[in-house]
Design a protein that fits this description.
The chain starts with 14 loop residues before the first helix and ends with a helix. The chain has 31 helices and 20 strands. Among the domains are: about 120 residues, no CATH class; about 120 residues, no CATH class. With about 850 residues, it is an alpha+beta fold.
């Protein structure tokens, strides 16, 4: 048997030929081990010290999860969350959706029973992403070693690492399916095992959507659609009409089955979307809000030089509201992507280039309205997504694949001795000399370069009417200088490899090793700043890799919350924004947007979620408009059961009717003595259109304790509340039980947000719930004793679960049955 792992000369180990010559099983093991090693080197604390990512966004998820897990332990699936925004759906908002995503069962077993790290759920998906990119490159014809490098490069792309590290777990996990989806779609277009590939594509897309980041799924569909158009044009030019028809049928079937697999999540989310700020009253998000995080064209410099506009936080000088990291691609990625256009013969290079360019210009968002505007208006569901820069993950995958084609062609030509014909050594020598000269100049002028950045940073802040701290400016100046040197040094090293290879002074295997090492070091150096911002900014407050005890401390109640927990009645709080900013108050201000109160089971009028209910958002807009105009809409706080007003600074003067219930330092809790209970009775009704009711809420003359605003006449006209009463006897996430004694007809108002999936059962009979005071619930009640149950019940959820199970079974069964039939025929 021929000994593997050495080139013909037998003098040294060649990783390119060695990995290519091994068996598929050994090759697969090598790839898996290599990717794991890369992750171990990048995140040793996560893998070996069981630390976790703890960022502001992940803290928001911990808040939702703490509520859901407690409910699960009691044997109830959490469908509703009553602790923020006066109540909102938990499941269709994707705030907490346990047991929906099949892979989570595997990662749970690995962590809970085999003692894998707590972040295993995220690490597994990074490995999946790397493996998917490896298989994609193999399918495109790249060698095993090149494909492995590209898999590692995509897996540790700084943007991708940052997504997971900064608490966007669903986005990171969903992205892992993108290379697989492209791989299966590519094979369908090539006519390779179409039934099997269509089934695998359906499963990949279905699982991707089940992971709960619909925007990444949408971009994946766009990428596949672009591939379909690209290949169909080529087929039509060759008049292969039957192939186009067959591809259309397979893609349509795959998409339908994928949506079916994910229907247990997609259908409830779609139903909710129509009532949220992403779909209600206008069909989508506001254009300005949706395009807030658009990439300015000048910031493409960050693709090759991370510090071109500051790395993030206080040093960022770009056009987005703020950011924590740049969208760095890597010198090797960009350089070999360019070389692919010259060296590679594959026609897929033009598809990958086009996909990368299209994703980039979509990421420009509002800075390229000629493209983004029509897409926002015309593409189905596109207007429900925000943060255009998120699409750059498509660009990064496409360019990593294009880089693989370029690097593979480079190594093949070098091995064949034909590289010099494509890359002139004489020209490369002068390019290398130029890079070396620039590197020397930057080394000499490093302090001046840093000073220029510092002045640019100060000018940027001054134009916004702010000032930048001297320590931040100095840190930015030093980091800018160092990163410029690092960038030019890496470029110089790669150009040196190209020159030596074209001059036939470097073996292909050794050239690959140098390129791989330089590329990974490049990625690691930028990833280090992403994963350890506390080292960059010399501030522990920016640390995102923490001990699990830090999460426990975050979830421990403070003195303020402990006081609120002593009140055992059912009430809400109004977390007032900073009094110093009154006149500019909004729902986005802290502590109104703080989700942590739900950890301590304190009901709040505020909170944060990117897809709030539209009706409550409208109420908040009206409420804060009143505050900012100098009016105090106490009637709105009363009807929302806001017994306490929480402020981190004194808000009211003494004698204003808001007694201090608790005070520590500057933090104050005021008691609202006129607050209404969670459920109360009224004997007067005003019927008015929905929009008029919204305006009426802010009217000083509106008294929710005595009158209720309805859109239509109740079945029972209220007479009097004298002698009548109502109390809540049981309050759960998915149900509320009340008892009412009614002497004369009146209307029950429940201070909970109206939502179609809530049903009311009075004395065992389901009764229509009326919308009260624009966004609450009401029931007309006749005389007598009533047992009332409000229960969250979603028929759509049950139906969609059945569809998901059936469609997943079909996706698995069809290729298996087809294979059995084929074997029998043989």
């Amino acid at each position: 048997m021929k000994k593997q792992g050495k080139p013909a000369s037998g003098r040294w180990f060649d990783p390119v030929t060695s990995l290519e010559d091994t068996t598929p099983l050994i090759r697969g093991l090598v790839v898996a081990i290599a990717l794991i090693v890369v992750l171990c080197l990048l995140m040793p604390e996560i893998l070996f010290q069981n630390r976790i990512f703890l960022s502001p966004d992940s803290k928001a998820w911990f808040s939702f999860a703490s509520v859901g897990r407690e409910t699960l332990e009691k044997g109830t699936y959490p469908l509703w969350n009553p602790y923020i925004f006066c109540g909102m759906p938990s499941y269709p908002t994707q705030a907490y959706t346990p047991f929906v995503y099949p892979v989570s069962f595997i990662t749970h077993v690995l962590h809970a029973y085999l003692h894998f790290p707590e972040m295993t759920w995220l690490l597994v998906h990074y490995l999946l992403a790397g493996a998917g990119a490896f298989l994609l490159l193999r399918s495109l014809g790249a060698g095993a070693a090149v494909s492995l490098l590209c898999g590692a490069m995509f897996m540790i792309m700084p943007n991708y690492i940052a997504i997971g590290a900064h608490g966007h777990g669903s986005q990171a996990c969903s992205t892992a399916y993108m290379p697989f989806a492209l791989l299966f779609a590519l094979n369908i277009m090539r006519g390779r095992k179409r039934i099997v590939m269509a089934s695998l594509l359906a499963i990949a897309l279905g699982f991707q959507m089940l992971r709960g980041h619909i925007q990444i799924s949408y971009y994946t569909y766009l990428l596949i659609g672009f591939l379909f158009i690209y290949q169909s044009v080529a087929l039509l030019r060759r008049r292969e009409y039957s192939a186009v028809a067959a591809n259309t049928a397979f893609f349509a079937a795959a998409f339908i089955v994928a949506l079916g697999i994910a229907s247990v999540l997609v259908i409830p989310v779609r139903e909710y979307s129509a009532l949220s700020i992403r779909g209600g009253e206008g069909g989508g998000l506001d254009y300005g809000y949706a395009t807030g995080w658009s990439l300015h064209p000048k910031e493409v410099l960050t693709f090759v030089f991370p510090w071109a506009f500051g790395f993030g936080k206080g040093t960022y000088t770009g056009a987005m509201p703020f950011t924590d990291y740049p969208n760095y691609l890597g010198i090797t990625t960009v350089l070999f992507s360019i070389l692919a256009l010259v060296l590679a013969k594959s026609r897929w290079k033009w598809f990958l280039l086009s996909a990368a360019l299209l994703a980039t210009v979509i990421g420009f968002g509002k800075f390229l309205p000629v493209l983004y505007g029509p897409m926002f208006k015309l593409l189905p569901y596109f207007n429900k997504f925000r943060v255009p820069v998120m699409v750059l993950i498509v660009q990064q995958l496409a360019l990593v694949a294009l880089m693989g084609l370029g690097l593979d062609a480079f190594l093949r030509l070098e091995a064949e001795g034909g590289l010099a014909k494509r890359l002139n050594p004489g020209y490369l020598k002068w390019v290398l000399v130029g890079c070396a000269v620039v590197l020397l100049l930057v080394l000499v002028l490093g302090e001046s370069v840093g000073g220029a950045f510092s002045r640019s940073l100060e000018s940027h802040y001054a134009s916004a009417g702010r000032s930048v701290g001297r320590e931040t400016a100095d840190t930015g100046a030093r980091a800018f200088s160092f990163d410029l040197i690092r960038t030019i040094a890496i470029l110089t090293a790669i150009i040196a490899v190209l020159y030596l290879a074209a001059s036939r002074k470097l073996r292909p295997g050794l050239a690959f090793i140098i390129i791989a090492v330089v590329s990974l070091v490049d990625m690691f150096s930028v990833d280090a700043a992403v994963l350890h911002p506390e080292r960059v900014w010399k501030a522990e407050e920016f640390r995102i890799i923490n001990e699990t005890e830090e999460r426990d401390r975050f979830m421990e109640p403070d003195a303020l919350s402990r006081f609120l927990q002593t009140d055992e009645s059912i009430f809400r709080i109004f977390p007032a924004p900073d009094p110093r900013t009154i006149g500019r108050w909004s729902h986005n201000y802290f502590p109104f947007n703080d989700n942590r109160f739900m950890i301590w089971r304190i009901y709040s009028m505020g909170g944060y979620h990117a897809a709030k209910l539209r009706n409550y958002q409208n109420v908040m807009d009206v409420m804060f408009e009143s505050f900012n105009q100098g009016r105090f809409p106490i009637q709105m706080l009363n009807m929302f059961n806001a017994k306490y007003i929480v402020s981190l600074l004194p808000l009211f003067r003494e004698g204003t009717g808001m007694p201090v219930a608790w005070k520590q330092g500057n933090s104050v809790i005021y008691e609202n003595t006129g607050v209404l209970p969670r459920a109360w009775l009224v004997d007067s009704v005003q019927v008015m259109p929905h929009e008029r009711a919204l305006r009426e809420l802010a009217s000083p003359g509106f008294d929710p304790s005595s009158v209720v605003l309805l859109e239509k006449e109740p079945a029972v006209r209220p007479v009097s509340t004298d002698g009548s009463g109502v109390e809540i006897t049981d309050y759960q996430l998915n149900s509320i039980t009340l008892k009412a004694h009614i002497e004369q007809p009146c209307v029950l108002v429940l201070s909970e947000i109206a939502y179609p999936d809530w049903k009311a059962i009075i004395n065992g009979k389901e009764t229509e719930i009326l919308t009260a005071d624009y966004c609450l619930r009401a029931l007309p009640l006749g005389p007598g004793d009533h047992d009332i149950v409000f229960v969250y019940r979603s028929g759509v959820l049950r139906m969609s679960l059945i569809i998901s199970i059936v469609m997943f079974g079909a996706a698995v069964a069809v290729p298996l049955i087809g294979g059995l039939i084929a074997r029998r025929e043989v």
